[in-house]
Amino acid sequence: MQVKQLIAVAAILIAAGPASAQQSEYIVADADFVPGKTRAEVMAEVLQAQADGNLVVRDGQYPVLSAGSQRSRDEVRAEARQAAQDRSRSNLYFGS
């Protein structure tokens, strides 16, 4: 029995060998890339946008945005109570 298992494992390893082979030729991912601007031009545009006030985010400090609810907390609670009393909304989850 152990010989059969050993042969099965060897066959699997031999079959999996080509799947894990590495590519022999190195291909540069951005070989066809043609830059439109230099680094200095981009940095000059960023500084100009900051000076104009068009660039709000600086150095990874993102502003905290509030979603701004249209309903009050009491309205949301009233809707939740109504939904709990009205079983038609929960039927979506139970399929009836």
Structural class: mainly alpha
Number-wise, the strands total 0
End-to-end CA span: 54 Å
**Taking all residues together, what is the mean pLDDT?**
77
Uncertain parts: none
| SSE topology string | HHHH
Number of helices: 4
Shape: flat
Strand content: under 5%
Could you estimate the helical fraction of the residues in percent?
40-55%
Radius of gyration: 31 Å
Tell me about the biggest sheet?
Answer: none
Quick gist of this model?
The protein is an all-alpha fold and 96 residues long. It has helices spanning 2-16, 39-52, 73-85, 91-94.
Describe the structure.
The protein has about 100 residues and is mainly α. The protein has helices at about 1-15, 40-50, 75-85, 90-95. It is flat and about 75 Å long. The two termini are about 55 Å apart.
What descriptive keywords fit this protein?
96 residues; mainly alpha; 4 helices; 48% helix
Helix and strand layout, with pairings?
Elements: H1 2-16, H2 39-52, H3 73-85, H4 91-94
